[in-house]
Amino acid sequence: MTTPSTTSVILTARQKARRRREALTAYTFLLPYLFIFLIFTVFSIGYAFYLSFTRYNLLSPPQWWGLEGYRRVLCVESWFPRPENAPKPVCDDLFIRKALPNTFKYTAIVVPTQTLISLVLAFAMDQKIRFRRLFRTIFYLPSVTSSVVISLIFVWLFSPLGVINQIFHLKINWLNDPRYAFYTIMMVNIFTTSGTLMLIFLAGLQDIPITLYEAAAIDGANKFQVFRYITIPMLRPVIFFVVTVGIIGCFQVFDQIYVMTAGGPLDSTTTIAYLIYKWAFRDTTVKMGQASALAFILALIIFVVTMLQRRVIEGSGSVNQ
User: Fold this and answer.
1) Fewer CB atoms < 10 Å away: N or C end of the chain?
2) Cβ(269)–Cβ(263) under 8 Å?
3) Mean pLDDT of 119-126
């Protein structure tokens, strides 16, 4: 005859055995993902971090040189006076001189523009108009099309004998003139991303309770007041998400630049992401260590800018409203 204590011990043992079987089943199904995650994410990031402290050209084993890669990227010595007749320190100033200013310029122009355009499109697509679904599909289509294909189309459109020059009777070499090349690439990015951001804003607009608009109408609020005091505050979490995604995408812009200008002319379209690729694979002297160091500097820049942007949005109201 079993006592109550013996029964509870048996039940506890059975529960533990069942939990072990459930855990084993769960980890068995998770194993393929965990393997991919550990190899292609954790190991890759860790190895890249190690390479950022080495001198490595893909042909010979990495040679440890500490912070030299970061020093060359940031040109630290150039920030302090040097003694007379001292040898000039080795410094790849392309990051400080071109890539960093170009990336911030690109982000400062593209992010507000694509956010505003996508918000306007979302408001238009939220109205009860004919062929609304067709227009949504048309606006979203560039977002699901290969960025390389769209970049090649724009290369054709903006070539010296392309459609744009033919229609407006211009003689501008858009992609080979430092005055216009970067703005042309910005136009491509805005064209390809506005559709996706439009759908995000549209989802946010449709999630706003209709009762708020009805209450505002009863109180006699006009359209501007409704937009300012209801729509924008309710959209603040969506705006934060859209701006954050836009900032990260702009800091990582690569494919349009690679296809359309390859960083030229005269490095006028060289951004941080393209410079990482250039140092790692295109330069005659491969600088994988410096490229890895620049990759982590870029990650730090994105993190800092995102946190600052979050504080700005929180300053006008919580993003969690």
Assistant:
1) N
2) yes
3) 87
From 114, 313, 120, 121, select the one nearest 233 (Cα to Cα).
313
Residue 100 pairs in a beta bridge with none
Q: Using a CB cutoff of 8 Å and minimum separation of 24, what contacts does 95-101 make?
A: 95/272, 95/275, 95/294, 95/297, 98/267, 98/268, 98/270, 98/275, 99/270, 99/271, 99/272, 99/274, 99/275, 100/272
Instruction: Classify the C-alpha dihedral 32-36-37-39 as positive or negative.
Output: positive
Cα–Cα distance for residue pair 291/272, rounded to 1 Å: 10
Q: pLDDT digit string (tens) for 206-218?
A: 888 888 888 888 8
Whole-angstrom Cα distance, residue 48 to residue 119?
A: 38
Nearest to 176 by CA among 147, 155, 150: 155
pTM of structure: 0.84
Segment 258-274 shows an average pLDDT of: 91
Helix (H, G, I), strand (E, B) or coil at 253: coil
Q: What is the dihedral of CA 132, 135, 139, 144, to 10 degrees?
A: 90
Residue count of the chain: 321
pLDDT band at 319 (very low <50, low <70, confident <90, very high): very low
Q: Are 302 and 248 in contact (CB under 8 A)?
A: yes
**Model confidence pLDDT, tens digit, residues 178-208:** 999 999 999 999 999 988 899 999 989 888 8
